[in-house]
Amino acid sequence: MEYEVIKLKTASPEEVVVVNGASWKCPVYVRRMPPCRSNCPTSEDIRGYLTTVAQAKDNNISIDDALDEAWYVLTDKNPFPAIHGRVCPHPCEDGCNRLYKDGSVAINSFERVIGDHGLKRGLKLRMLTEEKRDKKIAIVGSGPSGMSCAYQLARRGFKVTVFESNKQTGGMLRYGIPKYRLPREILDAEMQRVLDLGVELRCNTKVGVDVPFSQLRKEFDAIYIGVGAQKGGTLGIPGDSLPNVMSGVGFLFKINNGENVAVGKKVVVVGGGNTAIDAARVSRRLGADVTLLYRRTRNEMPAIKEEISAAEAEGIQFHFLAAPVSAETKGSGAVSLKCVKMKLGEKDKSGRARPVPVPGSEFTLEVNTVLSAVGQEPDLAGMAELPNNNSWIVTNAVRETSIPGVYAGGDAVTVDIAVTAVGHGRKAARAINAYLHGRAYKEPSPPRPVKHTEMKLDYYKNAPRNDAEELAPETRIRGFEEIHKTLTMEQAVAESKRCMSCGLCFTCDRCRIFCPREAVSKDKNRPVGQKMFSDYTRCSGCHICAEVCPSGYIEMGMGL
To answer: Hey, CA dihedral for 463, 469, 473, 474, is it positive or negative?
Structure first.
């Protein structure tokens, strides 16, 4: 019997056996992209770390060892699992195919379990090479994007120096996110792990002010700009420069820097994004009655939905379809904020309905403090030579600017969530690595994710989602104690087993059981996801195995 080995043109090409030119009708194994991963800005191998724990018992691995391996799988893409397990709005869960059965897998909560496990076990980030390279890279900003880039370059053997304008690492993770969402010991520990790879850190050093940007271009072989959007926007109304009117970004910076800020008894926060919600919830913890003023409706708010609900539960009042028009100082330091009601008109460039003032609908709010959270941008002072569009650095798809060897990402390019910033840093590191080796870098085209309609959802048993416990609203507003708890180990293992292993074999045995020619076998010594295999000399091409495969891993032959 003669065999011919070919590579099928699939999303993830794999070698298959062709027997006498007839394999066109035989089923093939095609590793598909799970939609959770395609929805993740860092492209974490979510299926990989979930199934590592879910299949631990079958593979004779202890849960601790399985979680160790899951941590290494996760941190290959994202070095901050304990951080992102707390602050990420988990777009991955929106892509989870289990959403169409009984609710998405609690990926974010599981990531936190992995992250906390890694800290408890003292796990170290893995290098990709022991070779020490003589090229030097400067990273401007020690936030999630800058430190992600630093990590990926350091593990490739490059000399990396991080410049941070503040006294500690973390960027907007530290100075923009309150402690009740991200405890500082968690932030410090995961940042330190990157530094432990040999990354040099220079705090209290603002590039463009303390160190000329031109000097960095002379001293370093490549530069990555990962500064955060730390400049808050103003209301643009008369009185927006009053002492009791401040930016939400500036307010959060002071609070997170340990400063005492007296906001008084009544606070109005203007805006509908994450900064607005954080500023409102912090003000509530400082003892104020808080009203959040937003010019659109709740449905148009760009803030994380869970955070909006949490703010509401904590007693924050929402005044929708309203906007400020002027602010005046009253006696005893109070502020009289004149507002106007709005109505929604035609859609603007963002795709949301444009708010339009309603004539004659003015009203006044008497408050102690007004916090403006209507926009923010990066501070590029001293770096005017960077190509920018109204203070936002312009890059191509691989985060390269028009200046050779200079890259940028995170909030320096566009305000987005922290996990997007981490993805930018990783992508830039790969591009910088190619650049320093004299090669052009092109990001691979993403493979097509497997859809729920291509799976057999009825095969999977219903299983309730495991959600983490949280402090009651009346308790949490008394201070800055962390709100959410970590899943118990029993909950975490149960949640890992809710993963349907979309697009990859999880050894359910259905293909072997249903094959009428007994052409499918199982070898537990083979790698995870490849334990089932077919003897194409016995296959008749009936495609029953493809029909019964619940995960969408087996496909019908496409023809030669």
So the answer is: positive
